[in-house]
Specification:
The structure is a single chain. It is built from eight helices and no strands. It is mostly helical.
């Protein structure tokens, strides 16, 4: 999964708290991170970065349906984020939602056709569906 700092995205409101939540998630404390992020979302339901970070924390907790919901909301609020599409497609692949992974991965590729991670997510899902030629 890519981190927001690696994506070159601009800082957002509540960044410090999101950074703290991200650190908790990376320090193997995703439950604590998710609680912090939910509080942020309650204060600012339009905070797309909080939804994306929540998706990563829920993914770490193996709560795939909720992680999928969080990423759907992040993308609804910020549809041009390659990072959100890439991470969402990875979650979808891990959840066994291969066809949707291919669709979301395709959206990431529409934003950046050279994204190796998007190509990987799409290819792995094609392989999982036994679409051998499409997975190469």
């Amino acid at each position: 999964m890519l981190e927001q700092a690696e994506s070159g995205q601009k800082p957002v409101k509540f960044q410090v708290t999101l950074e703290q939540a991200g650190k908790l998630r990376r320090d193997n404390q995703p439950l604590e991170a998710s609680r912090m992020i939910i509080a942020l979302i309650r204060n600012d339901p339009s905070n797309h970065a909080a939804y994306a970070e929540l998706g990563l924390a829920l993914f770490a907790l193996d709560l795939m349906d909720r992680a999928i919901g969080a990423f759907r909301q992040a993308i609804t609020l910020c549809p041009d984020s390659e990072l959100y599409h890439i991470n969402f497609s990875a979650v979808l692949h891990h959840a066994g939602e291969f066809e949707e992974c291919i669709r979301v991965g395709g959206s990431a590729l529409a934003l950046n056709s050279k994204s190796a991670l998007a190509h990987m997510n799409v290819g792995l899902s094609h392989f999982s569906l036994r679409h051998w030629d499409d997975g190469i």
